[in-house]
Design goal:
Strands 3, 4, 5, 6, 7, 14 and 15 form a seven-stranded mixed β-sheet that branches. The chain has two domains: 150 residues, Alpha-Beta Complex (Quinone Oxidoreductase, Chain A, domain 1), CATH 3.90.180.10; 150 residues, Rossmann fold, CATH 3.40.50. It is 25% helix and 27% strand. The radius of gyration is 20 Å and the shape is globular. With 334 residues, it is of the alpha/beta class. Helix 1 crosses helix 2. Helix 5 links the parallel strand 11 and strand 12.
Length: 334
């Protein structure tokens, strides 16, 4: 079986914030899979903030994508041709490196089989995948909220942040959630149960934090970085705990690895700051998936998706996701 596949490649490096024209769609002919390989037709693709780091030349966690090369990312697909006995035709698989395309050939060990019995298959890109593991790891692995503690989370209406709000509430914490619109604020407080909302676009975050948490905050979950990180550190109580999983506010700059200007405040307050990513907790994925499934089944968890259709919509969808147009997990349906 041969397939004329389509893939999104980076056509040029962004200057500042990415635009859809930084990417283009190209066709590539795929032949038969070799020994131990699979031909997969993607059904769902993931859009995540960390993908912005593939477009930079700065050294860091993610290797830079060459201009003219396809963008990597998460994907759920179906095996349509197999030369690997362990994964026959019809097997559903998830890959973290073969997104941004409609078909691909890969070694069998580069994918993981999934069961449709676990729920909608796109969940393995979100709640049961990178997104869910990240939120769980930050709450249960790093912050470990105690009843009565106050947690502040920015990027709260996004994929990870919206889960953080709910997990923290289940742990008995008071939750302050920050996002960029009143519509999102209503959803965070009225639907997800956040105790307080901060609109970082229309309100002074520092003043609003002082208003809703005059004694300070014990816990901080950071998805944003930059000025928002500094403000939260200043609002923390002595011996507070901060979990850092992203810094989306810095990704378009010349140095996304730049440190905070109030570093000494961490020393003065004895604040524990822990950076982490989902990779630290992937071995616990079966347990995490089971916990989420139970929470959903008992009506204690709300999982939201923003879905766009078609590979051609992906470049603009990526731009929209980075600007906060999504609520919950951003996905592309093929």
């Amino acid at each position: 079986m041969s397939v004329l596949a389509r893939q999104v490649v980076m056509d040029r490096r962004p200057e500042g914030a990415p635009v859809a024209a930084d990417c283009r769609i190209e066709e590539v002919a795929l032949g038969e899979p070799s020994e131990g390989e699979l031909l997969v037709r993607n059904l769902w693709l993931s859009l995540d903030p960390y993908m912005r780091l593939f477009m930079t030349t700065q050294d860091g966690l993610h290797e830079s994508v060459p201009v003219g090369a396809p963008m990597p990312g998460g994907a759920v697909g179906e095996v349509i041709a197999s030369n690997a006995e362990s994964l026959p035709v019809g097997t559903l698989v998830v890959s973290m490196g073969h997104g941004w395309r409609d078909h691909y050939i890969a070694p069998a060990e580069a994918v993981q089989p999934i069961s449709p019995d676990a729920g909608p298959i796109q969940r393995f890109l979100g709640l049961y995948g990178l997104t869910g593991v990240t939120a769980w790891g930050g709450i249960n692995g790093v912050l470990k909220p105690k009843p009565g503690e106050t947690l502040y989370v920015n990027g709260a209406a996004g994929a990870v942040g919206s889960l953080v709000v709910q997990l923290a509430k289940h742990a008995g914490a008071t939750v302050i959630a920050s996002a960029g619109s009143e519509t999102k604020g209503h959803w965070l407080t009225e639907t997800l149960g956040a105790d307080h909302f901060i609109n970082y676009k229309s309100q002074d975050v520092r003043e609003r934090l002082a208003e809703v948490a005059p004694d300070g905050i014990e816990l901080f979950f950071d998805n944003v970085g930059g000025d928002q990180f500094e403000i939260a550190i200043d609002a923390m109580k002595p011996k507070g705990r901060a979990a850092l999983c992203g810094a989306i506010a810095l990704y378009d700059g010349d140095n996304y690895r730049a440190g905070p200007r109030n570093l000494f405040a961490i020393i003065e307050k004895h604040v524990s700051v822990t950076g982490f990513n989902a990779g630290f907790y992937y071995e616990m994925a079966p347990q995490i998936i089971a916990e989420y499934a139970e929470l959903e089944a008992t009506g204690k968890l709300i999982y939201e998706e923003t879905v766009i259709d078609g590979l051609e919509a992906m470049p603009q969808g990526f731009v929209d996701m980075l600007s906060g147009a999504n609520t919950g997990k951003m996905l592309v349906r093929l």
